[in-house]
Amino acid sequence: MLMLAINQDIQQKVYQEIEELFKDNDTLAADHLFNDLKYMEQCIKETSRVFSHAVITTRRTHKECTLKDNMVIPANTFVVPLLFLANQDPDLYENPQKWDPENFNEQAVLNRPKNSFMSFGYGPRSCIGIRYAMLSIKTQMVYILRDYHLSTNIKELTKEHLKTDLFVRSTIGFPIKFTKRKGLNLVDF
Question: What's this model's pTM, rounded to 2 decimal places?
Fold first, then answer.
């Protein structure tokens, strides 16, 4: 929500996508959340990329692997991928420090290796709750953005505003102002 409050133009695109979904019907079915709201999903994934839920994971190699610098990892070796760093790789993301939902448009995703985005893991050991998490986040965002416009006095969230331990966290909180879309009631959080 904070990233949408900072990026008003992107918030407007997400809001328009939501309104388009509801134009003929005022109810929301789960299949719409999974199949529609593509731009909202790009925003969620981009937020997950920049502000990783998990900083590290562990994996075991099943066969010998050669990395791009010709370093060889033997079979049956435990490795600890640093997800936060992988999600900030300039070889994968043109401007990795910038929050940009276009990093997850269809073409951008096709141009990257399929396992390059690992905020929820990848393959058979990926997070079993990824679909539930996406459904839950989209549902909450739909109902919040339909009723409220988000704003903040923060102009940009930079590295200085973040701390990393087990998760990436904001050191300045989430100062978001919720303005009722159909009225002037203000709610500050």
Answer: 0.83
Q: Look at residue 151 and give its three-state secondary structure.
A: strand
129 vs 10: CA distance, rounded Å: 27
Task: Return the closest-CA partner of residue 18 out of 41, 1, 50.
Answer: 41
- The residue type of 185 is N
pLDDT per residue as tens digits for the range 129-148: 788 888 899 989 999 999 99
The packing angle between helices 130-147 and 38-50, to 10°, is 110
CA distance 38 to 179: 25
Contact, 15 vs 22, CB < 8 A? Answer: no
Instruction: Answer yes or no: are the C-beta atoms of 33 and 138 closer than 8 Å.
Output: yes
Tens-digit pLDDT profile for residues 33-58 = 777 899 999 999 999 888 877 777 78
Phi, psi of 176 (to 5 degrees): -115, 135
Name the nearest CA neighbour of 15 among 148, 140, 137, 139.
148
